[in-house]
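Researcher: I've got a protein sequence and the SMILES for coenzyme A. Could you write out the 3D structure of the bound complex as structure tokens? I'd like something to compare against our soaking experiments later this week.
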Amino acid sequence: MVCIRKATLADIPEIEACDLLCFPDSQIDQATNLSFFNDSILFDVVYVAEYDGRIVGYVIAYMIEEQPEEEKNDKVEDKEECREGYISWLGVHPTHRKLGIAAKLMTAAEKAMVQEYGCEYVYLNVPVSNLAAVSLYTKILGYRFHCTEAKFFEDGEDAYVMRKQLPGKQLDHFMLGFRHGSGCFWSETKAEFLGLLDRLEIC
Ligand SMILES: CC(C)(COP(=O)(O)OP(=O)(O)OC[C@H]1O[C@@H](n2cnc3c(N)ncnc32)[C@H](O)[C@@H]1OP(=O)(O)O)[C@@H](O)C(=O)NCCC(=O)NCCS
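Model: Sure. Here is the predicted complex with coenzyme A in place.
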């Protein structure tokens, strides 16, 4: 049974081992990789997939930093901030692929970005030749093609930039909870709340 959970610093050696199998041609040295995983777990959104007590997949995502005040011109200042997240790393152990693990990891990261940061959009870069990942993002997870970035990857391969809209800042439970008779109802989302209202006969 697969368990998707937040990563801890103790997971780093196993994440690193999984990463080596997922990206065998990567030219990033081990020290850089380890420090990247360490910082990501401390500051970003990192989930792992555990199968029989062993880490078989991981996803790393972070929020794009808002533009510093001094770089904003008057025009941009009026614009509402858009909270954007970025999926920077995703890998599933070769022996555990095609079991839906990547889809579960991505969904957990997206949910955490919405709940913890009010993320409105998430985007990612995928090598144009990576048909498995392109299919995962477009057919299963609902990402849309945004543009192509030439020579984005270290080996010179182009990247598709893909983007997905997320619910953004959710109305909180207080806003969506209500009492009716002796009952008390709560809903996670506005749509669910409206559905609840539809099903109740309120005099
Ligand atoms: C891409 C990767 C993360 C997919 O992981 P996974 O756990 O096997 O993916 P899932 O089981 O969740 O697959 C979901 C969907 O992705 C697509 N997909 C996954 N593997 C595929 C493959 N080998 N060929 C075609 N489509 C594939 C399918 O649409 C699949 O849905 P389906 O099972 O209904 O056909 C995994 O192959 C991997 O780690 N690859 C190496 C690292 C990598 O490429 N990371 C992504 C970098 S952008």
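Model: Helices lie at 12-22, 30-43, 74-78, 101-117, 131-140, 173-176, 190-199. Residues 22, 90-92, 97-103, 126, 130-133, 135-136, 139-140 surround coenzyme A (CB under 6 Å).
Researcher: Great, I'll pass this along to the crystallography team.
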